[in-house]
Amino acid sequence: MATVSGDQASTIGGHPKGLAYLSFTEMWERFSFYGMSALLALYMVKQLLLPGHTEHVLGLGALRNLFEFRGPMSNLAFASLIYGWYAGLVYFTPILGGWIADRLLGAKRTVVLGAVLMSAGHLAMSFDQSFLIALLLLILGSGCLKGNISAQVGTLYPRDASSLRDRGFAIFSIGINIGAASGPLIAGGVAAAYGWHAGFALAAALMLLALAIYLAGQRHLPDTRPSKKQRAVAVKLTAEERRRVWALLAIVALTIPAEIAYPMIWSIGIVWVDQQVSLGTQFGTIPSTWFGSLDSIGSIIAAPALVALWASQAKRLREPNSVTKIAIGTGLVSVSALILAASNLTAEGPGSISIGWALSGYLLMGLAWMYYWPTLLALISRAAPPAVASTLMGAAFLSPFIGHTLMGWIGSFYDQMTPAAFWTMDAGIALAGAILLGVVRGPLSKALDAGHKAT
Predict the structure, then answer these.
(1) What gap in Å lies between CA 283 and CA 287, rounded to an integer?
(2) Contact 357, 340 (CB under 8 A)
């Protein structure tokens, strides 16, 4: 069980000081991650997969042969598959990172290990030859860092502080989205001015800054390193705890449709913007990579309003429960994709879609994310049995693992469909998820209420 010292219990605006350090750490980690991710698809299509580059990448030819089991594919399709598997595995490894934290190193040491691996991965992205090695390092590093940072946010709050915890995770998500918004803007600008590899090197530098901030805030974070006895004894859960675990895993599974439809804007969406949207302005042409920031900007804009709204609803005992919030967010993902689909109906040819359509769809995706993802993390941190809290937080990332991997596969069909049909399909996937959540939210909420009264 984590212990909270006086330093760890001190507050800023009613929230623990540790929240600020975790938020700033995650902000710069997300800067590096999303800055690199915004460049990734276009970098592959416009440079890495072209003659003169692709033959120098260690292992890339073998990987292409593996992916072409259904026949030869375009560079765009191959890039979509690589992006999907990379993004998916980034969200699969946190369950391993959670197990390492729960059973071996503790959350603090596991996060430090993850930050070091991610820094090495971003640096390796600065060279064509080490592209696949870089992706592997980033996957392993993110696995150690992601779930354990989120789990540490949960340990800062009493388990019965339901609404305060939701607001704490929403504030934590502001840090995520500031980093995610600034990363593509700045890294994309550096890449446009100095080349792709300069953008990747900047991501490495900011990852090291994230590590420095995390180390500076150690005294404000609870020590969750397992004892020798805890490492030696197998985890045993009561029947009621097992029911809670299964209910939480069911909710994680039901976020998969959102995690297919939403991240499509980071891979195929950037390519779609580059090809279809009119990016010329009186100040010059806007880099298409900057659109990788817009959903995060939407989240930043939405966060203060949502925190205030949920606090007001909680005072009046009218705040939607966690499963309902997740359903609302999934529905908003569908609406956002429909906006992108509708924009193609106005197109007169490549590069002719008004930028306002793309802005609207991307910004609304940010609001959708604020409704479903921070709420899911807060729900798990509150309802998970303490003995498996970090492991279950890691398990939450199985949803984006499956979703992002399927996103890459679905995205590989983009150049075989019209853009309008593709985005309509994307919207339909999210809509199906929202309907399923609406149907089962009552039984799932009841199952979690049985073990913890405040959901």
Answers:
(1) 12
(2) yes
Cα–Cα dist 444/175, whole Å: 30
Please give the pLDDT value at position 6. 41
β-strands 280-281, 15-16 pairing: unpaired
User: What pTM value is reported for the model?
Assistant: 0.73
Burial 83-106 (b: 16+ CB within 10 A, else e): bbbbbbbbbbbbbbbbbbbbbebb
Q: pLDDT, tens digit, for every residue of 336-380?
A: 999 999 999 888 888 889 999 999 999 999 999 989 998 898 888
> Torsions phi, psi of 181, nearest 5?
-80, -40
Whose tokens are 């010059």? That residue is 284
Domain boundaries, the chain: 12-226+239-449
Q: CA 345 to CA 264: how far, in whole Å? A: 19
Tokens of 135: 């992706």
Give the distance, in angstroms, between the CA of residue 389 and the centroid of all CA atoms in the same chain.
Answer: 19
The widest CA-to-CA distance across the chain, in whole angstroms, is: 68
Q: How far apart are CA 297 and CA 367, in angstroms?
A: 9
Highest CATH level, class, for 12-226+239-449: mainly alpha
309: left (phi over 0), alpha (psi -120 to 50) or beta: alpha
Q: How many CB atoms lie within 10 A of CB 247?
A: 24
Cα–Cα distance for residue pair 154/294, rounded to 1 Å: 28
Distance separating alpha carbons of residues 292 and 270, to the nearest angstrom: 7
Cα angle 295, 297, 298; round to 5? 60
